[in-house]
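Internal QA ticket QA-208
Title: Verify multi-chain structure generation after dependency bump
Assignee: T.L.

Test input:
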Amino acid sequence: MLFSLLLLQASAAFAWDTFTVPHLPGEDDTPGLLALVSNHASNATIMFNKGVTYNIFIAIKFPVLTNVEIRIEGNLTYPTNITAIQDVVGSSSFPGSWFTFSGGDNVTLRGSTDPHWGWVDAHGQAWWDAVQQTNRPHGWAFNKITNGVIRDMKLWKPIGWNFATSDSVDVHIYNNRIMAVSDSSSFPFNTDGFSAGGTNLLFENNVVYNGDDCLTVGSGAFNITWRNGYCEGGHGLSIGSLGEGGAVANVQNVLIESTIMQSCLYAARFKSWTGGNGIARNITWKDITFLNVPFPIYVTQNYWDQEDGPPPNVSSTLNNTHIADFLFDGFTGVIRDTPFVEGSCVTDPCWYYVANATGREVVILDLYPGTATDVLAKDIVARTETGREVDVMCNATAISTDVGFKCWDGPFIRTKAGL
Ligand SMILES: *[C@@H]1O[C@H](CO)[C@@H](O)[C@H](O)[C@H]1NC(C)=O
Ligand SMILES: *[C@@H]1O[C@H](CO)[C@@H](O)[C@H](O)[C@H]1NC(C)=O
Ligand SMILES: *[C@@H]1O[C@H](CO)[C@@H](O)[C@H](O)[C@H]1NC(C)=O
Ligand SMILES: *[C@@H]1O[C@H](CO)[C@@H](O)[C@H](O)[C@H]1NC(C)=O
Ligand SMILES: *[C@@H]1O[C@H](CO)[C@@H](O)[C@H](O)[C@H]1NC(C)=O
Ligand SMILES: *[C@@H]1O[C@H](CO)[C@@H](O)[C@H](O)[C@H]1NC(C)=O
Ligand SMILES: *[C@@H]1O[C@H](CO)[C@@H](O)[C@H](O)[C@H]1NC(C)=O
Ligand SMILES: *[C@@H]1O[C@H](CO)[C@@H](O)[C@H](O)[C@H]1NC(C)=O
Ligand SMILES: *[C@@H]1O[C@H](CO)[C@@H](O)[C@H](O)[C@H]1NC(C)=O
Ligand SMILES: *[C@@H]1O[C@H](CO)[C@@H](O)[C@H](O)[C@H]1NC(C)=O
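Actual output:
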């Protein structure tokens, strides 16, 4: 009798409980949320109920969590007041993102599969229309988590970058949807989809409509897989930018596959700054479909930000981020070769302008001598919208191996390695 009572108590102590986030109409729900999650930072589900729109009026930093699921079945709303958000972002206590996780084990961030609920609405349209770029909050920082899950999340009109996993290990990120789509002619600047940092990250079945990188893999990233994705309107499946301000980069073992790139500026993209250092190694983009994309494959070791004025003159004393074992395998699609001005272009020429390009290049390899080895593009099947020839640009003196096509500035001519 006593024994079974003890057992009952023991199992009760370790029981998994669900706690609902309190909501007060018109009020900020973050104090209630923070109190709840601080009291139940382990073995718990923290539930945002369906049928409720929660007010997330200030940025929130979660405590270190163990065995916790954050479940978003209701809607979440940022303030509609731009100045109110800028005040929070500009304050010294701003944790870095509107939702910041920093540390924890077995943490799940889970949205809703109900199409009408589970949306996180940042009201970005007003920011885009005002071209308001001061103190824009990033969305979700999932930092220093081991054994994490981000699934079924749905972000509506974000203001800035969306998800970032910095220094996290073993995270599965799937079935998420980002809708940074403007209803007007304004552009959703810097709405990067997924920023991959950490080790052993698996991204699957994510859908991103946005105005910047769909995926961006940063320095320190190891063993990253992205597959079965759909990206529309943004700036591609990117490694980098790396090496800004002489930074030493290290990115290894990345596989990006089976993804559709619709009306993006780039499909596969690598970018490092002149004067950086370090290495990006063993990076594969495989089975990529591109539609209405002006630059399907674009590698530059000479990346530059349009806001920073003219790029430096290349000098042989500068280091560069090395690239090795890059494979572009199985690219099929249509190059956008009709005139266009992409929405992020605010200078003349545009930041993505390539001197002497024909606008029909399926591959551009903008490489420095002696810093790129084993770059190969194979099984590339491309045509242009206008039916004209497909071209390439490639710095022949910079690379000694067969890149899969004739390395020159001219028509695309496949070589043996490219078959
Ligand atoms: C959480 O549950 C585990 C068993 O799954 C148990 O070992 C641990 O003590 C629990 N933690 C707390 C704070 O109750
Ligand atoms: C990890 O969290 C999930 C819920 O998200 C839970 O079902 C599972 O039991 C947890 N694992 C451990 C080892 O506690
Ligand atoms: C917006 O927020 C600012 C700063 O908090 C405040 O001064 C202003 O009154 C708010 N505007 C409205 C319409 O609520
Ligand atoms: C939840 O938010 C989304 C995005 O703002 C909106 O489209 C949807 O109508 C909201 N759901 C309900 C039930 O209000
Ligand atoms: C990367 O993955 C490989 C193979 O799955 C594994 O052996 C290696 O330990 C992983 N690297 C890290 C840093 O976890
Ligand atoms: C290259 O990366 C892939 C993952 O994309 C991994 O499976 C493979 O082991 C890596 N190769 C080397 C030589 O590290
Ligand atoms: C680069 O060199 C050109 C010609 O030598 C010079 O006019 C220009 O000012 C230099 N740019 C920078 C950023 O040093
Ligand atoms: C290039 O890198 C080497 C070693 O990593 C370093 O000693 C040198 O100062 C770097 N050069 C520049 C211009 O940063
Ligand atoms: C563009 O082509 C012209 C003529 O071939 C050449 O003089 C010039 O150096 C090229 N510019 C660049 C940036 O490659
Ligand atoms: C590669 O060659 C092109 C001309 O074809 C040139 O404009 C570009 O600066 C070169 N890239 C690098 C990184 O030197």
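Spot checks passed. The longest strand covers residues 277-293.
Status: verified.
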